[in-house]
Amino acid sequence: MTDHVVLVADVGKSRCRVELRRGSEVLGASEQHGFPGLGIEDGGTLACTLLVDTAAQLPVTIPQDLAGFGAAVAGVEASTENSLELAKLLTIHYGVPSAVLSDATAAHLGALQGAPGSVLIVGTGAVAFRFDDLGYLHRSDGWGPLLGDRGSGRWIGQHGLHAVLDAYDGGAETTLTAMAGALVESPEHLPAWLADSGNPARAMARFAPLVLQAAQAGDDVAQGIVDAACRILTDTVLRVAKGDDVDRRVALLGGVLNSEFFAELLRKSLASAGIEVVAAQGDGLDGAALAVTRRGLLQERYIHRDGTNWPE
User: What is the pTM of this model?
Assistant: First the structure.
C-alpha cells in the first residue's frame, strides 16, 4: 500500500488536519478546528463527523481506489471503545481499512519511522513518548491542561497571561502587558475573555508566541517563563529515558518548536542533561500514513484497527 492513495488525519485539541496522499506526495489538504478528545461521550461518532467534514473540504476529489484512512486523534488512550468505534465508522463511511491511534503515537511513528526511541512533542500540550525495543510505551506528561502539559504552549501562554495580571496587581512590570492589549482593553478583562473563548487551552496557547517574542527581546519576566518551560520539558524527557541501557536521544516535534529561539534554548537545556536531539524524519500525519499502510509495527498494540480482515 506504500504508493496507494490514502487519507490521513492529525486531530489535536487546537486543529484538525486531513491530507489525501499518494505515497509521500500530498494531493490535497484541508484544516479546521480541533477536537476535545476521544474520551468524551460519543467521542467516536463526533470525531468521525469532524473527519468526514474536514475531508469533504479537500480541494481534490477522493478517488474510488482509496486504499485506507489513518487517523491520529487526541485522547485515544482515554477510551479504547471510542477509538475502535471511530475506526469502524471510518471503514463504514469510506469502505477502506482504517487505523486510529493517538496523536502522540502517530507523531512518534512519523519522527522515528517506527523505530524505538524517544520523542518530545511540544504543542498546545506537551508529552514525551519512548517505545522500547519490545514495543512497550514509556510516557511522561500529556495529562491535559488541567493536570499536566507542563512547559507546553498552553503552559507558556498561561504563565504569560498570569504575569500580565501580576503586573496589573503591582508585581514585576513586563512588556507582555502591552502585548495582551491586542486581546483586551484592560488586563482585568482577561478572565472573562478566557471564559468566553470556548477553548481556554487553545486561547492561552495562542499567547505563547508573544511570550517567546518578549523573551527574545530581553523581557526578564518572559525569559523566566521560557527558561522554566525548558527545564520542565527537559525533566519530562529524562523521565522516559531512565536506565543505563536507554538511548539518550530524542526527536522534537510540535508547533511551539517552530520558534527557532525556543528550540535552541530547549536543545541547550537537553544537552546539559546529557540528551542529544536528533532530527525528526516526519510528523503525525506521516505517522498516521505509516499506521494505515503497514501492519506489524513495533507500536502495533497501540493502534486500533477496524477489525475486518483486509488484505495485506
Answer: 0.81
